[in-house]
Amino acid sequence: MASAYTSVAIPTQPEIRVPRSNPSQSSHSSHEHGSSVTEHDHSAHEGTGTIHAHFDPHIKLLTTPPETTHTIDEYSIKKSHTQWYRVALQSFLAGVMLSFGGALALAVAGGAPSIGASDPGLQKLLYGLAFPVGLCMIVITGAELFTSNVMYMTVGALSRHIKITHLLLNWLISYLGNFAGSAFTAALFFYAGNTPLVAKDPWRAYLIHFATSKVADPTWAQLLVRGIGCNWLVCLAVYMALSAQDIFGKCAAIYLPIVTFTTLGFEHCIANQFSIVLALMVDQTAVGFDFGFFLWKNLLPVTLGNIIGGGFFVGSAYFYIYGVNTK
Predict the structure, then answer these.
(1) Angle between helix 133-141 and 247-264 (nearest 10)
(2) Which is nearest to 6 in space by CA: 53, 43, 48, 35?
(3) Residue 19 — φ and ψ, nearest 5°?
(4) Structure pTM?
(5) Are 41 and 19 in contact (CB under 8 A)?
(6) 272 contacts 214 by C-beta, under 8 angstroms
(7) Cβ–Cβ < 8 Å for 162, 77
(8) What is the distance between the alpha carbons of residues 29 and 173, in angstroms, rounded to a whole number?
(9) Closest C-alpha to 98, from 263, 308, 267, 274
(10) pLDDT band for position 198 (50/70/90)?
(11) Per residue in 105-136, pLDDT tens?
C-alpha cells in the first residue's frame, strides 16, 4: 500500500493526498479510504504521478483608476501610429455599429406609443436600455469612435507622448469615418424597403418627432450643453470598460452611463448622424429642415460639446488626478 497515494500540489494550499489506484486493489482501496472515485477514474490517472492544479492569485477583474489612465495614454500612442486607412475603416465600422444600436433603440421606443403617452419617462428608458448595444460592439471589436477618441488623444497630448497633429488627424479621420458609416447605415435602412422604422407608424412618426426634437426645438447653446453631458458619460463608460478585464464587466460598465445619457436626452454627434439623416431621407418635408440646417443647428454645437465633455471633464480631469509620466 506504499503507492496507494499520490500528491496534489496546489499553490497557497496545504498539500492534499488523494487515493491512487492499484489495478488489482482498486475496489478495495476505494472502500478502504472512503474514495468516491470510480475504478475507471483511477485507471485514467494511473502512473501520472503528482497532479498540479495551477491557480493565479494575481488575476484582477478590475484595474485601478491610475492604471486605467495609463492604459488610455498607451492606447493614444498606438492610435497615433496606426495607418490612416486602418483608422478610417475602423471608424466606418464604428459608425455602423453605433447606428445599429440607435436603430434598435428607435424600434423599441417607437413601437411603444401607448407607453409614451401615459409614461414618457418609461419610453425614454426603453430607448436607453437598447442603445448601448452599439457601444458594446465598438469597445469589444476595437473600432474607432470619435467621441471616445477625444478622451484617448487628449490624455496622450497632455502627456506629450503624441503630437497635436496626431490628435487632430485622428479626430478628423474618425469623425468623417463615423459619419460615413452612420450615413451608410441610414441609407441601408431607407433602401431596405418596407421596414417598420421608415415605412410604418408608429415608428415612422416617432422617428420624425425624434429628429425634430433634436434640431428644431432646442437652442444652439442648449445643444452645446447637452453635448457636454453626453460625452462626459460616454467617456466614463469607455473608461470604466477599460478597467474591466472580462467581457461581461465591460458591457456592464458601458450600460450604466450610456443608459443614463440616452434617458436624460443628452446629444451624441455620431448617433445623430444616423437618426437625423435617416429622418431626412424618410420625409424632409415632415421634418421641417434640410441637411445644411442640421449641420449648423445640431451637429456643430453637439460636436463641440462632445469635445469639451470628453476631452476636458474626463481626459484632462483624470490625467491631472492620477497623473501620467510626461515625455
Answers:
(1) 140
(2) 48
(3) -60, 140
(4) 0.81
(5) no
(6) yes
(7) yes
(8) 71
(9) 274
(10) confident
(11) 999 999 999 998 999 999 999 999 999 999 99
Cα distances (angstroms) measured from residue 290 to each of 167, 276, 277: 31, 10, 10
What is the pLDDT at residue 15?
41
How far from 181 is each of 62, 178, 185, 249, 293, CA to CA, in Å? 32, 5, 6, 27, 21
What is the per-residue DSSP string for 203-258? Answer: HHHHHHHHHHHHHTSS-HHHHHHHHHHHHHHHHHHHHHHHHB-SHHHHHHHHHHHH
User: Phi/psi at 7 (nearest 5 deg)?
Assistant: -90, 150
Helix (H, G, I), strand (E, B) or coil at 19: strand
Question: Which of the four pLDDT bands, split at 50, 70 and 90, describes residue 323?
Answer: confident
Neighbours of 300 (CB within 10 A): 16
Please report how the helices 269-287 and 203-215 are oriented relative to each other, as an axis angle in degrees rounded to 10.
110
Positive or negative CA dihedral for 150, 153, 158, 163?
A: negative
The cell numbers describing 226, all together, are 447637452
- Compute φ and ψ for 6, nearest 5 degrees: -130, 150
Q: Give CA–CA dist 262/294, Å, rounded.
A: 20
Residue owning grid cell 497632455: 158
Among candidates 183, 229, 234, 212, which has minimal Cα distance to 293? 212
